[in-house]
Amino acid sequence: MKILNNRIVSQPSKLYLEDFVEKSLINQLDTEEKIICNVENALINDLKDKDTLKNISYENCKGCLCCIEKRDADGFNSKFQPIMNSQANSSFDYYTNSQFLGKYNKNLESDDFMEYFSKSEVKKTTPLACNIFFRISKNGNQSFYRSSPYAETNIKTPNDPRDGKLDLVILNPIEKKLLVIESKKNLSSLINDKKRDQWNKYKDQIIKISNKYNVQFQYLILIGGKEVEIYPKGAISSDPVYDQRSRFYEYIKDKKFFSLNFLHNLLICSLVKKNIFWEDIFFDNKDHIGFLSAGLINNKKQLKPIIFNE
Hints:
The chain is an alpha+beta fold. The chain has nine helices and 14 strands.
């Protein structure tokens, strides 16, 4: 099992994006260990048992699967809790071959999982995303992760005397690739807060830092909650109860986004396929604006399958 994320940067408490990038590239940031599962009491304290699944409290486990490695389980139950000797329709292999095909599949979502991790973007959505990115990195043990609730990253805003705050920042110094992520627990949270428009507030500074240190970057908005709410109209047959898609796509037209469900599915896919890395997926598909469990959303709001590197 993977018990710890040992690459969290929480000190100093005030750290600017430029300092984060500069010091990450020369390996001068202190990192610390955090339990990779941020669900209270989901992992049992005695982690010495050779039967790894006995380390999981199924009463508390919410199915994030961040602690699971390929040898630990072969599938999951209806709550995404890991199991051995799974039925064919809940095996990692079956699930992996059913997603990212360019067609929406309602069975690729768990209401229990999404409800829990969409309760709070600071305490639930963002740290889960941080730990999944740690698991699906080419160089996870050499990369740097700064995430709420441990610590946010400051960014200077020339037109505002107050610093901006970045929810999740990740740098792989080997690949020289930077992710800057704004987190929202669900679509309504984004719609209600869209007047802040962080990308247009921060983009000049991010571009400046990227050019100065010769790193590639992607600025992405992470959206939790029900994924069906953020598919373009016409891309799927289901119409969500909370239908704000027109407003959402008008706001997102100069930005990029991904769903929490997409990220969770990538983690599951990585337990079967060898080459599932955020450094490829988010940087090899620059012409797309959205990343969902059914596939990619292009600039024409069309749903397309994802082709992974072999």
